[in-house]
Amino acid sequence: MPLKSLAREISDLSDYQVYGRVSGVLGMLVELSGLDRLLVIGSRCILIAKDERRVPCEVIGFRQGHALLLPFGSLDGIGLGCKAILASSEPSIHPSEAWLGRVVNALGEPIDGKGPLPMGPDPYKVRSSPPPAHGRQRVGGKIDLGVRAINTFLSCCQGQRMGIFAGSGVGKSVLLSMLARYTSLDVNVIGLIGERGREVQEWLEDDLGPEGLARSVVVVATSDEPPLMRRQAAYMTMALSEYFRDNGRDVLCLMDSVTRFAMSMREIGLSAGEPPASKGYTPSVFAELPQLLERAGPGVKSKGSITGLFTVLVEGDDHNEPIADAVRGILDGHIILDRAIAERNRFPAINLLRSVSRTMPGCNSDAENELVTRGRQLLSTYDNMAELIRIGAYTEGSDPVIDEAIAHNGALEAFLTQGKYEESNLEAGYEQLAAAVGLPWGQGGDPAVEFNPETDLSGQMPGTEPQNIDGTGIKT
Predict the structure, then answer these.
(1) How far apart are alpha carbons 219 and 125 in whole angstroms?
(2) Domain coordinates of the chain in residue numbers?
(3) Domain 92-363, CATH 3.40.50.970 — does that match?
(4) Using an 8 Å Cβ cutoff, are 27 and 37 in contact?
(5) Is pLDDT above 80 for 9?
């Protein structure tokens, strides 16, 4: 297999080299002359700096007979007259099963210090089209993601695509690490797009851990890298997911975050002279989002599936800002992380009343739907009266529905609280939810499992003390 792959690469080499010259540099934008008739949008060139350093670039547009390029690296040493060599116009990778447990950059190069990556036999285009809609399978059965609140109230199916919407510092990264460690799916492909460089190693070692990394491929592009690298990291994440899907694996694709991908597209569009449309985002951003996100989902024929969970970093906690609004309309559901819930120390800080899974209730049994409906009703009733309850304006006994919501709120809050090192499976989640809302549960009429908020309330976020919840659900 390696020999075949090497032979294919050798056959792709050109008999001669074509090169042009740099005719202008403005900011991160490079103007190139001499190759304009051979280049198309997306073509790759290699710039040769004064110190012989090679800088890969991509064509993003044309102006007055010159090609416009953006670099994948630093432009230090690039000046007028520097040579530009024509490279591959269709970049591809050769992934294999040996990539599991590895960390790569946006170009598919290893950055974990574990040596070179074994190459697979088949090339995969980094930027490909989504599968045809008429050839796709339907979404599969319900999957276990290991998080009680999502398993029960926001059940996901194989091939579903969900968004996790939150402001900064509300717990997105911790939630992603829980999903990667505890999911029942075969493989994780994790894209860290525009991540803080300081936090990458901490997240890999402390949050994801050796167990989660062993069945994952992690693609990293930090915030200090050029916009092309951040955009490329998102494409690389999807290309690796497609490889494992086409080999019959059920893949969990985690991307953090789509917003930073959109920001990189905005930088690229503005550099090419594209006019801004909404909050500085160019029209090409909104055209590119469905091209990226639609690559996730069920495969064709008997192939596997890609279940996608994409985080969206909402600016200023505005869940109706342009990127959040566009992504919400593309995906099959959304999970809202609420800062007010995080501030009262309940993690994951999921606002269930504002979150929805579009494959639910179709994937649930009647009993599960009844259980979830009752839980939502109790949460909604308490939420509507929360202010009056907190200031003591509500008198017990005024409304039996509100009294019931108050009585169950402490158990529900405990049920929704889950430490990042605590795993919960599907069946146990339904049993605990049934006990929390006062409904019988179990096979063959067995009594429901007792759920004790004091003993079943597990670890909090690191550095915090356990919370005490009284009968009204207010932290004391």
Answers:
(1) 16
(2) 17-86, 92-363, 368-437
(3) no
(4) no
(5) no
Is residue 459 pLDDT above 80, yes or no?
A: no
Q: How far is the C-alpha of 250 from the C-alpha of 48, rounded, in Å? A: 42
pLDDT one-digit tens code per residue, 274-291: 999 888 999 999 999 999
- Fold classification of 368-437 (topology level): Substrate Binding Domain Of Dnak; Chain:A; Domain 2 (1.20.1270)
pLDDT at position 434 over 90: yes
Tell me, what's the pLDDT at 255?
Answer: 97
| CATH numeric code, 17-86 | 2.40.10.170
